[in-house]
Design goal:
The chain has one domain. Helices cover about 60% and strands about 0% of the residues. A hairpin with a 2-residue loop joins β1 and β2. The protein starts with 8 loop residues before the first helix and ends in an 11-residue tail after the last helix.
Protein backbone atom coordinates (compact mmCIF):
# COMPACT_ATOMS: atom_id res chain seq x y z
CA UNK A 1 0.00 0.00 0.00
CA UNK A 2 1.44 3.40 -0.93
CA UNK A 3 2.42 5.85 1.77
CA UNK A 4 -0.09 8.71 1.85
CA UNK A 5 1.62 12.03 2.51
CA UNK A 6 0.47 14.08 5.47
CA UNK A 7 -2.09 16.74 4.60
CA UNK A 8 -3.24 19.66 6.73
CA UNK A 9 -6.39 21.33 5.43
CA UNK A 10 -5.88 24.46 7.55
CA UNK A 11 -2.39 24.98 6.12
CA UNK A 12 -3.62 24.43 2.58
CA UNK A 13 -6.50 26.89 3.09
CA UNK A 14 -4.13 29.49 4.58
CA UNK A 15 -1.73 29.19 1.67
CA UNK A 16 -4.17 28.85 -1.23
CA UNK A 17 -7.32 30.86 -0.58
CA UNK A 18 -8.41 34.43 -0.28
CA UNK A 19 -9.06 35.01 3.41
CA UNK A 20 -7.54 31.72 4.47
CA UNK A 21 -4.97 33.43 6.64
CA UNK A 22 -7.79 35.14 8.55
CA UNK A 23 -9.54 31.92 9.54
CA UNK A 24 -9.15 31.51 13.30
CA UNK A 25 -8.07 28.30 14.97
CA UNK A 26 -11.32 28.43 16.97
CA UNK A 27 -13.34 28.55 13.75
CA UNK A 28 -11.40 25.66 12.28
CA UNK A 29 -12.04 23.59 15.40
CA UNK A 30 -15.73 24.54 15.58
CA UNK A 31 -16.22 23.51 11.93
CA UNK A 32 -14.35 20.24 12.49
CA UNK A 33 -16.39 19.45 15.61
CA UNK A 34 -19.68 20.37 13.93
CA UNK A 35 -18.87 18.31 10.84
CA UNK A 36 -17.94 15.28 12.94
CA UNK A 37 -21.02 15.61 15.13
CA UNK A 38 -23.28 16.10 12.11
CA UNK A 39 -21.90 12.99 10.45
CA UNK A 40 -22.51 10.90 13.55
CA UNK A 41 -25.90 12.49 14.31
CA UNK A 42 -27.24 11.98 10.77
CA UNK A 43 -26.01 8.41 10.51
CA UNK A 44 -27.08 7.47 14.04
CA UNK A 45 -30.53 9.04 14.26
CA UNK A 46 -31.58 9.79 10.68
CA UNK A 47 -30.38 6.71 8.77
CA UNK A 48 -28.16 9.02 6.67
CA UNK A 49 -31.20 10.93 5.39
CA UNK A 50 -31.61 14.09 7.43
CA UNK A 51 -34.84 15.96 6.76
CA UNK A 52 -37.60 17.63 8.71
CA UNK A 53 -39.61 14.41 8.44
CA UNK A 54 -36.66 12.44 9.86
CA UNK A 55 -36.43 14.90 12.76
CA UNK A 56 -40.15 14.54 13.45
CA UNK A 57 -39.61 10.77 13.70
CA UNK A 58 -36.54 11.23 15.92
CA UNK A 59 -38.41 13.55 18.28
CA UNK A 60 -41.07 10.90 18.88
CA UNK A 61 -38.36 8.69 20.41
CA UNK A 62 -37.08 11.44 22.72
CA UNK A 63 -36.45 10.24 26.29
CA UNK A 64 -34.92 13.22 28.06
CA UNK A 65 -32.53 12.83 30.92
CA UNK A 66 -31.77 15.59 33.38
CA UNK A 67 -28.41 16.22 31.70
CA UNK A 68 -29.72 16.22 28.12
CA UNK A 69 -32.74 18.32 29.10
CA UNK A 70 -30.50 20.94 30.68
CA UNK A 71 -28.21 20.99 27.66
CA UNK A 72 -31.12 21.38 25.24
CA UNK A 73 -32.64 24.18 27.33
CA UNK A 74 -29.24 25.93 27.20
CA UNK A 75 -29.22 25.52 23.40
CA UNK A 76 -32.71 27.00 23.19
CA UNK A 77 -31.72 29.92 25.42
CA UNK A 78 -28.65 30.61 23.27
CA UNK A 79 -30.62 30.65 20.02
CA UNK A 80 -33.50 32.62 21.51
CA UNK A 81 -31.00 35.30 22.49
CA UNK A 82 -29.12 35.10 19.18
CA UNK A 83 -32.12 35.17 16.86
CA UNK A 84 -34.66 37.36 18.63
CA UNK A 85 -34.76 41.13 18.68
CA UNK A 86 -37.00 43.68 20.37
CA UNK A 87 -39.15 43.73 17.24
CA UNK A 88 -39.36 39.99 16.64
CA UNK A 89 -36.49 38.29 14.89
CA UNK A 90 -33.06 39.55 13.93
CA UNK A 91 -31.32 39.54 10.57
CA UNK A 92 -29.28 36.61 11.91
CA UNK A 93 -32.51 34.59 11.99
CA UNK A 94 -33.20 35.55 8.39
CA UNK A 95 -29.65 34.36 7.67
CA UNK A 96 -30.73 30.80 8.41
CA UNK A 97 -32.42 30.95 4.98
CA UNK A 98 -35.38 28.74 5.76
CA UNK A 99 -36.80 26.92 2.79
CA UNK A 100 -40.53 26.58 2.22
CA UNK A 101 -40.92 23.26 4.07
CA UNK A 102 -38.48 23.96 6.91
CA UNK A 103 -41.24 24.78 9.42
CA UNK A 104 -39.98 28.28 10.13
CA UNK A 105 -43.30 29.08 11.82
CA UNK A 106 -42.71 26.29 14.34
CA UNK A 107 -39.18 27.49 15.10
CA UNK A 108 -40.42 31.06 15.55
CA UNK A 109 -43.16 29.98 17.97
CA UNK A 110 -40.71 27.96 20.04
CA UNK A 111 -38.13 30.78 20.16
CA UNK A 112 -40.88 33.19 21.22
CA UNK A 113 -42.06 30.80 23.93
CA UNK A 114 -45.48 30.44 22.32
CA UNK A 115 -45.04 26.68 21.92
CA UNK A 116 -43.62 24.72 24.80
CA UNK A 117 -42.88 21.10 25.44
CA UNK A 118 -39.70 19.10 25.24
CA UNK A 119 -40.50 17.43 21.91
CA UNK A 120 -41.64 20.64 20.23
CA UNK A 121 -38.52 22.44 21.47
CA UNK A 122 -36.24 19.61 20.34
CA UNK A 123 -37.78 19.69 16.87
CA UNK A 124 -37.15 23.44 16.60
CA UNK A 125 -33.55 22.97 17.76
CA UNK A 126 -32.92 20.24 15.20
CA UNK A 127 -34.36 22.41 12.45
CA UNK A 128 -31.97 25.23 13.42
CA UNK A 129 -29.04 22.79 13.40
CA UNK A 130 -30.17 21.57 9.97
CA UNK A 131 -30.28 25.11 8.60
CA UNK A 132 -26.78 25.76 9.98
CA UNK A 133 -25.58 22.55 8.36
CA UNK A 134 -27.08 23.46 5.01
CA UNK A 135 -25.66 26.98 5.16
CA UNK A 136 -22.22 25.69 6.13
CA UNK A 137 -22.09 23.05 3.42
CA UNK A 138 -23.91 24.94 0.68
CA UNK A 139 -24.13 28.63 1.46
CA UNK A 140 -20.78 29.91 2.74
CA UNK A 141 -19.70 33.05 0.95
CA UNK A 142 -16.27 33.71 2.50
CA UNK A 143 -13.98 31.85 4.86
CA UNK A 144 -13.86 34.79 7.27
CA UNK A 145 -17.58 34.37 7.89
CA UNK A 146 -16.74 31.22 9.84
CA UNK A 147 -15.01 33.31 12.51
CA UNK A 148 -18.44 34.74 13.41
CA UNK A 149 -19.99 31.28 13.65
CA UNK A 150 -17.82 29.71 16.36
CA UNK A 151 -20.35 29.97 19.21
CA UNK A 152 -23.20 29.04 16.89
CA UNK A 153 -21.44 25.89 15.67
CA UNK A 154 -20.35 24.94 19.19
CA UNK A 155 -23.93 25.31 20.39
CA UNK A 156 -25.17 23.22 17.46
CA UNK A 157 -22.64 20.48 18.23
CA UNK A 158 -23.72 20.38 21.87
CA UNK A 159 -27.35 20.32 20.79
CA UNK A 160 -26.74 17.28 18.58
CA UNK A 161 -24.86 15.54 21.39
CA UNK A 162 -27.70 16.20 23.85
CA UNK A 163 -30.26 14.90 21.38
CA UNK A 164 -28.25 11.74 20.81
CA UNK A 165 -27.89 11.27 24.57
CA UNK A 166 -31.69 11.31 24.95
CA UNK A 167 -32.75 9.20 21.98
CA UNK A 168 -32.22 5.44 22.11
CA UNK A 169 -29.70 4.15 19.62
CA UNK A 170 -27.65 1.00 19.34
CA UNK A 171 -24.60 3.16 18.62
CA UNK A 172 -24.58 5.10 21.86
CA UNK A 173 -24.00 4.25 25.47
CA UNK A 174 -27.18 4.80 27.46
CA UNK A 175 -26.86 6.84 30.64
CA UNK A 176 -29.42 6.82 33.40
CA UNK A 177 -29.01 10.36 34.74
Amino acid sequence: MPNVPEFNAADWIAQNTVGGLNLSIEAQQAVADFTTMWNFFESTLCDNRASIAAFEHVVEQYEPTEVSGEALRACLTFWSFRYRSRDGFSTRFDGLYFRQRDRRDHVEKVLLGDVEGAKEELLALLIIVYRLRNNLFHGLKTLEMLNDQVENLRNASRCMAAAMEAIPSRFLLRRTS
